[in-house]
Design a protein that fits this description.
Strand content: 35-45%
Helix content: 10-25%
Largest sheet: 6 strands, antiparallel, barrel
Structural class: alpha+beta
Number of strands: 26
Amino acid sequence: MTCSKGRPLLAWATGASACVLVLLGAGSAVQPGAARAQEAASAVQDVTLQDVTLTFGDTVLKAPRLTASGTRLSKDELTALLKPGPGESWAARLVRLDAASLAMPELRVERTGTAGATPVVTYRDVVARDVRAGRAAELTAAGASILLEGGPQKGTGTYGRMRATDLDLTVLARLYGEPGDGKSALQRIYATFAVDDVAYVDARGTAVKIARIEGRDLSGRQIPATWTGALQAFTAVDYERLAPPERARLMSLGADLAEAVSVGSLEATGLSIQEAKPRDAFSLGIARLGLTGAGLLLEDIRFAGIDGAKARLARLSLDGFSLGPTIAALRKLATLTTPPSDGELRLLTPALGTLALKDLSLDLPPEAKAPRDPADRALTDRAPPAPTHVGLRDGSMNFAPPRDGVPTAGRLSLSGLTLPASAVAGVPGLGSLGLYGYSDLDLALVADTSWDEAARELKLGEVSVSGKDMGSLRLNGMIGGIGPEVFNPDMAVSSFAMLSATAKALDLTIENTGLFDRFIAAQSKVLSLKPEELKQEYVTASVFGVPAILGNSAGAKAIGAAMGQFVTKPGTLSVSLRPKNAAGIGMLEFSAAPTPAALFDRLEVNAKAN
């Protein structure tokens, strides 16, 4: 895997915004330099320097003019502070920096060590106000321009006004330049951060715009490699060709970085992406994107693609998200001396929490079919078919923390799933719904499962499907013999472990609210029978045929009788199966049973209809 060499990612626009303040902070932070301000300094004054150039690794900052107002430093002292060379750490120097303001009409930031590209950001009217003991009460810039030259990611962009409050330059200096053990307390970098009117266009014509980005309470902790060292290690890396020691080092660095950053909140509004290239043309808009340490929220998402495909989602949220399992897996993989297997990489799965959707609308273009003969070509002159519309009122997926990369409990819930019956024409069990008079479907689906490690049981809390003016089908059950081996990343181990599974309970409930009646009406027409005559035939088949198929046991007869009652008066049919042996019936026993009767003799059956 290599770093992307195609279009810039959305992260360029949002991440660069955050980097603006980091870079501006670095420009202000280093100004105290190597010289020590004298305790008995001269009177407060304004000091101006010309053509200031500062170099930090592969980053070069250039300011044609810098003015320090309300400072006790003389011009010579300030010049000495900015002079590169050995001395105290920047953090130690920053503590002694006090000024009413530091102003630069222009600040140019260049990255000279970036492979294949030369990014340049030029800020206008940069001002740090009330700088005391290395902390700026406010840092602002009137705007900025971006120029990325060379390489496939070249492009241009702009920022509007930028502002940060309570920006601690000494913390920035420590995080980026001083190593730590990665276990110290988090240190706050800024209280608030905002940037307006972000815009970027790459060489392909892909345009990214964000009306406003706001952040609050960004904190970090020092790590052994420093933030600068860690970020540089991930630049232009071909992961597939890395030697095991280097791969292990990067995994350890990734874990360090993930634990070293804490974001109170981040919000972006008015986000849009437009791809201008005809073959790949699309537009994406997001009214609001919110991010916290454990969640994500997107509101009013709109998408339009080629061939008329459109989608809208009112709300998407993710709550309870955690990188804890991923960080633990990175540290474990860092100890490997060989490339990780697919099963070991599965351990990187984070704790997903709950993903929820609200009011999804999807319009899919009709499938294009080429005419096969001249007569078919005449059909192309008619109006094109309407797109297929799919909707979802509410949807949610909840996942428990993963074990070996697999969640041990989960719940899927979809309600208000609407689509035309023609869209499921080829789906078994649903393909005939159009024949029963359903033109549009309104469905609800639920799947709820959980694993009890102590009891070695997998519970099917609910697996159900229901439809408006149709009815519902619901399954509940319990499977025993499910130990931790079932979640083993090795497919051979997990498959073998499933052979020990046992069926301990199964409940089936069918409720009719219109589907069975439509089925009888449609079949009556096909068979030229009256509905009551057809129902009587089904009653006879249920009462006598079903028990014969199932072995004529008492339980089989109970099921047949209940089915006959349901056909006579379609309402609710319930069937409950419990093994007479509390341990359940194993999978191998199911496959080895010579007849259905051999299984039903081992079951307690309860069936009823009303």
